[in-house]
Design brief:
Blueprint: H1 8-20, E1 35-38, E2 44-49, E3 53-57, H2 67-80, E4 84-90, H3 92-97, E5 101-111, H4 116-122, H5 124-135, E6 138-143, H6 146-149, H7 154-168, E7 191-197, E8 200-210, E9 215-223, H8 231-245, E10 250-252, E11 256-257, H9 264-272, H10 279-288, E12 293-301, H11 307-318, H12 323-332, H13 336-355, H14 358-361, H15 365-387, H16 391-416, H17 423-449, H18 454-457
Parallel strand pairs: 3-4, 9-10
Antiparallel strand pairs: 1-2, 2-3, 4-12, 5-10, 5-11, 5-12, 6-7, 7-8, 8-9
Helix pairs in contact: 5-8, 13-15, 16-17
Length: 464
């Protein structure tokens, strides 16, 4: 949670942001994942290097007249270094001034904070959410950076505990690029808001400036999984009121990924990825706050580029370069879809066990049917676990599958291996041993990330 070093290079970027920071994501380019490509003293592109591509965050920091020239020069520099290039998170101005191929990757809501009071008057459901949170004793207030400066102070520690609880509740491994958590970098430029109940921190909001539009981007909105309903809305309400009092003209909650009229492939990704990332829920939350308008957000890539490759490069940027590593880390967190997949995979496996000849594969028919009955129960338990994560059931399942793996290994060594007839037999026995072993690893890892698990009781994971 310590902020990245405010190097002279980042101070130089901050100076450019104060002149040309027009994109909602512009301030995020000060975070530690980014490298910088400068053109002269008055233009810069912030990007991450995935090893195959330079993926830029938003539009270049430059005057509107220079956007096209700077973007083209950046692509040439990337090519000279053996990299592709694309710009993620561009808005309408860039798309109008730079004639490249683009694809819409979502929408972001925008408000004029001076109209927020009217939004509240027109939305009974929003007023009810605020009432519920206040009735539960939740109080939201603005913070000064000085109140969070002491890393050992009770308020700062309360925020860090909130971050740990929030992070461990996510079904996916936490990502980098434009969604990493660096709450305290350049703290003097930010606006902070906290929600407390009974003296405990239950919500936190960090807003960053959009200098060229006299605006705020409500960047990091964190709510404790056990916080009362309405806590997030209460923080947004406090931020809107503060923005209006300070004369801000523009507030956004940032990108709702894959929202709006995206292409067919991205719509399919939205459906397939719904169990890992709640695209519809995030959009619904932002829409509930009744924005003045929705602005399309694009992925732009230069002539001759391919959209599918640009999407791959962006995913690699969010995964910090390692898509396979990110996928494995996500699996080990134990999202519900993993339990569902294990449950459904057990169905054909159990059918194969029931149809297999007992004399060849099992010490006796009784052992065979015991395994079949066990796997039927295990499949049902996995499917139930995928619908409601109960830590006690998860612990029991992890122990049970570990015993399954051990017994399978013993049976394979004592009974199956002496009766091997060839490579196919060896492969079947290998799968029989590997399947429960991998399942046990996944279940124990999920247990560590579950409520009450070891990761929370011991050393919780904290984002860098």
């Amino acid at each position: 949670m310590e902020p990245p070093q405010q190097s002279p290079e980042r101070e130089r970027v901050l100076a450019l942001l104060r002149c040309h920071g027009w994109n909602a994501t512009s301030f995020q380019t000060l975070e530690s994942d980014f490298r910088y490509w400068f053109q002269g003293d008055d233009a810069c592109v912030a990007y991450v290097d995935t090893g195959a591509a330079w993926v830029a965050a938003g539009a270049p920091l430059a005057t509107p007249e220079r956007l096209a020239d700077v973007a083209e020069a950046f692509v040439e520099a990337a090519s000279a270094n053996g990299r592709r290039a694309c710009f993620f998170g561009t808005e309408a101005r860039f798309c109008r001034l730079v004639p490249w191929a683009t694809m819409q990757i979502g929408e972001q809501p925008v408000w004029d904070p001076s109209r927020w009071a009217g939004v509240l008057r027109s939305s009974r459901s929003l007023r009810e959410q605020l009432r519920r949170a206040r009735a539960k004793g939740v109080i939201a207030r603005a913070l000064s950076p000085d109140e969070l400066a002491d890393a050992s102070g009770p308020l700062r520690r309360g925020v860090e505990r909130l971050v740990a609880r929030w992070a461990s509740s996510r079904p996916m491994a936490l990502m980098g690029f434009l969604v990493q958590l660096e709450l305290f970098s350049f703290a003097g430029e930010r606006r902070y808001f906290v929600a407390e109940a009974g003296g405990a921190v239950v919500g936190f909001l960090s807003a960053v400036p959009v200098y060229a539009r006299r605006g705020l981007f409500l960047e990091d909105l964190l709510r404790d999984p056990a916080a009362p309903n309405g806590t997030a809305e209460l923080l947004v309400d406090q931020a809107m009121r503060t923005a209006a009092a300070e004369g801000c003209l523009y507030v956004t909650l940032g990108l709702a990924p894959l929202a709006g009229p995206v292409g067919g492939g991205l719509r399919a990704a939205r459906r397939l990825g719904a169990r890992l990332y709640d695209f519809r829920g995030l959009y619904a939350f932002k829409a509930k706050l009744r924005p003045d308008r929705w602005e399309p957000i694009h992925l732009a890539y230069p002539p001759g580029g391919r959209g599918a490759m640009a999407i791959h490069d962006v995913l690699a940027a969010f995964a910090r370069g390692g898509l396979l590593r990110f996928g494995v880390a996500t699996l080990l967190r134990g999202p519900a879809v993993v339990f569902e997949l294990l449950g459904y995979l057990l169905i054909p496996w159990t059918a194969l066990l029931a149809l297999s000849p007992a004399a060849r594969w099992f010490p006796s028919p009784a052992v065979k049917w015991a395994w079949v009955a066990f796997d039927v129960c295990l499949s049902l338990a996995m499917l139930r676990l995928s619908r409601r994560l109960r830590p006690s059931l998860l612990l029991f399942m992890a122990a049970l599958v570990t015993c399954d793996a051990a017994l399978t290994l013993i049976e394979a060594l004592l009974f199956n291996l002496p009766r091997m007839r060839g490579a196919l037999d060896l492969a079947i026995v290998g799968v029989a041993i590997a399947a429960p072993t991998v399942a046990a690893i996944l279940l124990w890892s999920a247990r560590m990330h579950a409520p009450g698990g070891l990761a929370r009781a011991g050393k919780p994971w904290l984002p860098s």
